[in-house]
Specification:
single chain; 6 helices; mainly alpha; globular
Length: 113
C-alpha cells in the first residue's frame, strides 16, 4: 500500500490549485495548518474514527479551528476528505501545500549560525 505522503500529494495539489486560482494561498495555508494540528490532537483523532461522529461534525470542528479561513471552497475540501476517510492525511497535505506555496512565492528557509 502507498504511504501517507504519496496518498496526500494529489489532495495537496488540488487544494493548492484552487487556492492559487482564487488568490487565497494564505487563507488556505491557515485552514490546512489549523486542521492538521487539530487532527494530530489525540482528542480529535479519537473522534475521526468514531462511528457516532458524522463527517459533517468533523468538518465543522476542523473548519472552526481556522476561523473558517478557507471559505466555502475550504469547507468543501474538508468535506471531501471526510467522505473519503482521508482526514488523517491533513498533516501531510498541509506540509506538501506549504512546499508548493514556498516554490511559487520564492521563499527559502535559511539557518543563520
Amino acid at each position: 500500500m502507498a504511504d501517507r505522503a504519496t496518498i496526500a500529494r494529489p489532495y495537496a495539489r488540488a487544494a493548492f490549485a484552487h487556492a492559487q486560482a482564487s488568490k487565497d494561498l494564505a487563507a488556505w495555508s491557515k485552514l490546512l495548518g489549523s486542521a492538521a494540528v487539530g487532527t494530530a490532537d489525540s482528542r480529535v483523532s479519537r473522534l475521526i474514527g468514531n462511528p457516532h461522529v458524522t463527517g459533517e461534525e468533523l468538518v465543522d470542528l476542523l473548519d472552526g479551528l481556522s476561523g473558517k479561513s478557507g471559505g466555502e471552497g475550504g469547507r468543501n475540501f474538508l468535506r471531501a476528505l471526510a467522505e473519503n476517510r482521508r482526514l488523517t492525511l491533513l498533516p501531510h497535505i498541509a506540509a506538501h501545500f506549504e512546499i508548493l506555496r514556498a516554490e511559487v512565492e520564492n521563499v527559502v528557509d535559511v539557518e543563520i549560525i
